[in-house]
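User: Structure please.
Assistant: Input sequence and predicted structure:
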Amino acid sequence: MADRSFLPCRIAVLTVSDTRGAGDDRSGDTLVARLEEAGHRLVARTILRDDREAIAAQLREWCADGEVDVVISTGGTGLTGRDVTVEAHRDVYEKEIDAFGTMFTIVSMKKIGTSAVQSRACAGVAGGTYLFALPGSPSACRDAWDEILVHQLDYRHRPCNFVEIMPRLDEHLRRK
């Protein structure tokens, strides 16, 4: 990793919850602490209720913002009727990163066993922006960051990482 310099990402954090506010958003706090500790920059943070259209609108807004490279949401990925974050993300994705959900399940299974089957963590790309949807627990956010995202959002990580292909994510939009 010594032959490449670290390139910080500009990251927005979205917490999806009907019950959490700024004072008790432990999952959002976990993500912010970890991304800043890694050297990335928090550029936006908000909390929204479990509303598919509102979540998708916020994701689209951040994808259109040239100052946001990555969006990480937490919450709303479960199986209950109010859990609509995954559907909102998929409304926005141009491409889904299927292996992210698989990797997250593998990481989770080591910690919580077969209960990992209840997670619908997912990821995708839209408008040249990475979008990650994580479960709403601080431990799930720690697991996703520590085991997957800290590496894939580090330009120095080999053999490959998300940062090195970031300049080409929206090349289809630039073609004539």
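Residues 10-169 form a domain with the Molybdenum Cofactor Biosythetic Enzyme; Chain A fold (CATH 3.40.980.10).
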